[in-house]
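Example record

The entry below shows one chain as it appears in the dataset: sequence first, then structure tokens.
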Amino acid sequence: MFVSLPTLFPLTCAKVLKPACKSQKDVIDALSTCPVLANVRGDSSGFVAYVWDQPSSGESMTSPHLRMPPLQAQTLALYVSGCLGLRSDVPGDMTILGGDMFVFADGGRTGLTSRFMKTLTDKVEKSGNKEAVKSKRILTIGYEQESLQRRRRTVRGWTPQLENVYIIAQPQMLNSMPTRKRKRFGEASSTNKGTLLAPVPVPRFEETWTLPWATKKDLLGPFRMPVGGRTDGGDDEEEEDEEDELPPTVQELAGQRKKRKTRAEGEEPLFYQSLKSVELWEEVLHSVCVNKAVVAFTVGDGNLLEACLKLNIPAVGFCMTPAHMSSMHERLVKKLLDLMADATSPFFSAEYAQTIPSASAPAAPTPHEPQPEVPKPGVPKPRPPKAEKKGAEEDGGEGDEESGNSE
């Protein structure tokens, strides 16, 4: 049900789960194969987190560069019930454990919050634990206006810069969360007890995971979904024209080529709406004191799992398709090998680094085919010898004009 990397991840457990879970039992069976997740328990010094990131949960079929994918309530409910069922000490109990938390990033769509909370409430309240679902904190991310406008390539109207991240856990655990200074974003004196994380730069599309359209379509599979309603930043009367517009390629956004005519041209980011870098995920996990384990309901572009890798947090993640799973496996392996070659990384391996050819080392000479000699200036090019006529040896050289004239 998953791809495991036990030999490559000596300090952490990272698994990428197949998208074949169709029932609560399937989710429990898949997650129970990870002993770290099944057995670890969080506390006030460190939580186990279940993360849903709306921008990387799929893609809109129309205008994906302008529209957020719809919330997949059934998929979310399936993952929630599976995780609660696995973690419960009593079979059938759906109570949120004391050291567990749910993290929901709304992608700037505050209207999705009530649907997410309803999904969680429907599962938890059946066990009588109504208090837990009422205990939440909101961390607001403020993105840099310049980098956000550059990425979206739009100047119409106002630029929405805020995204809310909802943290749901038992009240006593949230209240006893230790105070920590921010790692890299915000003021120098700001701590995780503040509700605003800003300013946060948005990575350029060319710095994200980009793919040709045909490959991307295989990775997304059924997670390309129709979306209704208005397009972000557009007017109602402009909606029909915008739906027929091809999303821009990474090359277009970087100013390297003109607008494409077919979607087969150029490359696209795997998720147009995803704004979170690896560094931002590190900050979020640090701020909410998650260090025991992470379950990524939306693996997306893999930045959350990469952040877990760098922070040495055991993590598992649900992929969208088998193609997404295999590509994510390769991507994580490459990221780890890069860390093992980085002398500043805790994963640095001197033995492995010695096996990598140095970029400054001269390249080994390659054999070349012999080139024809170039004649010196003023020296006539030698004529090739004339081929002997058939029968010249039989008649003693008759027919050779030069030989006959000399006699």
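Notes for this example: Residues 211 and 295 are 25 Å apart (CA to CA). The chain has 15 helices and 13 strands.
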